[in-house]
Inverse folding.
């Protein structure tokens, strides 16, 4: 049995993760941690091998350092990581010889949506991303939106068509990640949704993914817990553990 701590266990994702991990025959939850608890001490006391972090953007980086310094493997679902922070954590994981994952999205369908979007971007350089989440989400755009734009940029063979950036209302054209526009919708009732909208010659292509409930993220979390313990590098994106 792989010993797992859930951090952020009182939250919406954390509560589901406790159940999912406990329902997996290869995994067991040895502690539930939340704001105010001493995560480092809990890892040492329980000898946990993996910590799943589902907390808040402002705490994710520090929590991952605590996990690695205590010798456990981080499985990070918390959003809001900057590229520089990921590099620092990857270096720390190498030093500690710990496997780990930072996953902008644990849903297997969302990972496939990003893969298909990167594939389509080779042929359709004109593309915009529209993502929707609940109003409680702290950060915009979503980690998935950013990751999708990064993958599109890496895959595009041609520059996109130039368009006017003359906004009559500021923000009308969305955020810009090196030429890929990302539009963030925040509405009650939505869990997580993303459309990648391509335009071509007299044709359009939409790749859409919907997470209908938080349980859609649980198979990815369980898969990650089992994979990180076999590795000694920290990777970014669930696809790195799926292939
Ligand atoms: N990667 C994914 O697939 C995915 C999917 C959904 C949500 N998320 C992310 O997961 C995180 C949690 O989402 P949620 O909807 O459960 O949020 P939530 O607000 O319901 O829960 C967050 C929990 O973290 C706790 N917390 C806050 N600071 C903490 C700290 N320093 N240490 C320990 N616990 C702390 C809070 O008390 C709360 O119980 C968010 O960052 C969200 O964006 C990721």
């Amino acid at each position: 049995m792989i010993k797992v701590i859930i951090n952020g266990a009182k939250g919406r994702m954390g509560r589901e993760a406790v159940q999912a991990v406990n329902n997996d025959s290869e995994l067991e939850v040895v502690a539930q941690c939340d704001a105010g608890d001493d995560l480092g001490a809990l890892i040492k006391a329980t000898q946990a091998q993996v910590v799943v972090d589902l907390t808040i953007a402002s705490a994710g980086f520090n929590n991952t350092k605590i996990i690695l310094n205590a010798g456990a493997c981080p499985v990070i679902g918390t959003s809001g990581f900057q590229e520089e922070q990921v590099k620092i954590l990857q270096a720390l994981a190498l030093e500690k010889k710990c496997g780990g994952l930072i996953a902008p999205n644990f849903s297997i369908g969302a990972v496939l949506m990003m893969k298909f979007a990167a594939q389509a971007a080779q042929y359709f350089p004109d593309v915009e991303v529209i993502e929707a989440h609940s109003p409680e989400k702290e950060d915009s755009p979503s980690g998935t939106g950013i990751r999708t734009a990064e993958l599109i940029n890496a895959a595009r063979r041609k520059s996109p068509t130039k368009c006017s950036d003359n906004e009559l209302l500021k923000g009308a054209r969305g955020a810009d990640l090196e030429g890929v526009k990302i539009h963030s919708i925040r509405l009650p009732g939505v869990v997580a949704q993303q459309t990648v909208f391509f335009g071509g010659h007299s044709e359009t292509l939409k790749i859409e993914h919907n997470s209908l409930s938080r349980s859609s993220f649980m198979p990815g979390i369980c898969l990650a817990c089992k994979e990180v313990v076999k590795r000694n590098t920290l990777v970014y994106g669930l696809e790195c553990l799926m292939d």
Notes: The pocket of nicotinamide-adenine-dinucleotide is lined by residues 7-8, 10-14, 33-35, 54-57, 59, 77-79, 103-106, 137, 217 (CB under 6 Å). The chain has two domains: 2-106+215-242, 108-212.
